[in-house]
User: Which sequence fits this backbone?
């Protein structure tokens, strides 16, 4: 591990599958970074197009590129293969159909000012296929700026993307943290688990990661199969809890786990097809009654619909991590939600009262 006075080495992990038309632009933007201390790990996950030839071409031109060709393991398996060979001080993901501003990593490292937070977060820019900037969804906005001691509020309130964050590799290897292979939304689990084992998180107003909104991409395709994907959420939560159990974190992080459970459960219920909701609830109920880690969480499950059958079809209340909505059947009457730095009370969509949210504790320089 380098000292704070030595240059940071960044391992950039790029899974590649069926993105040959966009791969050159992606690799050009990574190889052309003004910050040169990079290790560029590209994993061809048995892509059916000519991505392998493109990758080998770039690997011959840039010695920093490590080209891995493997049988198809999915995006989580590809990222894990990258982690297995990474040697940098930090690791970061890049999607092979996205691209970077030339000075992105230089600006992020400059913002760190010689510190070494466990997780360093920066901004995201959404663009269409022609490179035109699109309105930024609230989900991708950073709610804080500066250096903080890690807190549940930071973990849950930060997006779960792996391409707009630097993750300290020393911590990853200490806990042998890997992605959940065979389960979608693997980046959710990764970011929440990484947050749980971290001590410091930093947020910088640096832009330059261009997230391309492309029809036919994995995320757009996932939305077409949304019920099928959300039905895997119980497996994802089990993966998270088994990691926490392995490292003795269940009881220490009980509140965080209950928040994660609430987020997974409510988000999926919102997106599931009606025909799949009964199966989904049944899967979660079975998991919470049979899993080895469940007794350690005790009665902290924030899922009234599962614990109390009288509440399973309550038409007056809808919950989410950052929002509680009281409604008369389909008409929202009172909504309480977190917006940026405030807790807002809205009556029929009009804000009638708001108060500042408690802010996470700033990190001392020695913590970093």
Assistant:
């Amino acid at each position: 591990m380098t000292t704070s006075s030595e240059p940071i080495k960044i391992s950039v992990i790029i899974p590649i599958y069926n993105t040959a038309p966009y791969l050159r632009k992606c690799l050009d933007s990574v190889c052309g970074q003004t910050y040169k201390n990079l290790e560029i790990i590209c994993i061809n996950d048995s892509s059916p197009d000519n991505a392998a030839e493109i990758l080998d071409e770039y690997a011959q031109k840039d010695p920093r590129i490590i080209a891995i060709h493997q049988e198809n393991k999915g995006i989580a398996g590809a990222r894990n293969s990258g982690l297995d060979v990474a040697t940098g001080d930090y690791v970061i993901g890049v999607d092979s159909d996205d691209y970077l501003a030339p000075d992105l990593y230089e600006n992020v490292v400059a913002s760190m000012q010689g510190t070494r937070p466990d997780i360093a977060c920066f901004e995201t820019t959404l663009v269409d296929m022609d490179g035109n900037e699109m309105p930024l969804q609230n989900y991708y906005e950073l709610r804080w700026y500066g250096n903080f001691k890690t807190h549940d509020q930071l973990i849950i309130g930060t997006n779960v993307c792996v391409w707009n964050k630097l993750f300290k590799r020393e911590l990853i290897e200490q806990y042998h943290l890997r992605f959940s292979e065979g389960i979608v939304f693997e980046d959710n689990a990764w970011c929440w688990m990484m947050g749980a084992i971290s001590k410091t998180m930093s947020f910088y107003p640096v832009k330059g990661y261009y997230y391309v909104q492309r029809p036919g991409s994995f995320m757009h395709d996932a939305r077409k199969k949304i019920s099928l994907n959300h039905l895997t959420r119980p497996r994802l939560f089990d993966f998270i809890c088994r990691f926490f159990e392995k490292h003795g974190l269940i009881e220490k992080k009980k509140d965080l786990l209950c928040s994660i459970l609430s987020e997974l459960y409510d988000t999926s219920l919102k997106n599931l097809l009606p025909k799949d909701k009964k199966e989904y609830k049944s899967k979660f109920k079975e998991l919470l009654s049979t899993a080895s880690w469940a007794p350690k969480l005790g009665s902290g499950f924030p899922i009234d619909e599962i614990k109390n059958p009288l509440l399973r079809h309550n038409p007056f209340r809808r919950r989410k991590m950052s929002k509680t909505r009281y409604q008369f059947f389909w008409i929202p009457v009172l909504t309480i939600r977190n917006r940026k730095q405030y807790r807002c009370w809205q009556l029929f969509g009009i804000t009638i009262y708001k108060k500042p949210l408690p802010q996470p504790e700033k990190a001392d320089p020695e913590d970093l």
Remarks:
- The chain has 14 helices and 16 strands.
- The mean pLDDT is 87.
- Residues 122 and 206 are 5 Å apart (CA to CA).
- The longest helix spans residues 254-271.
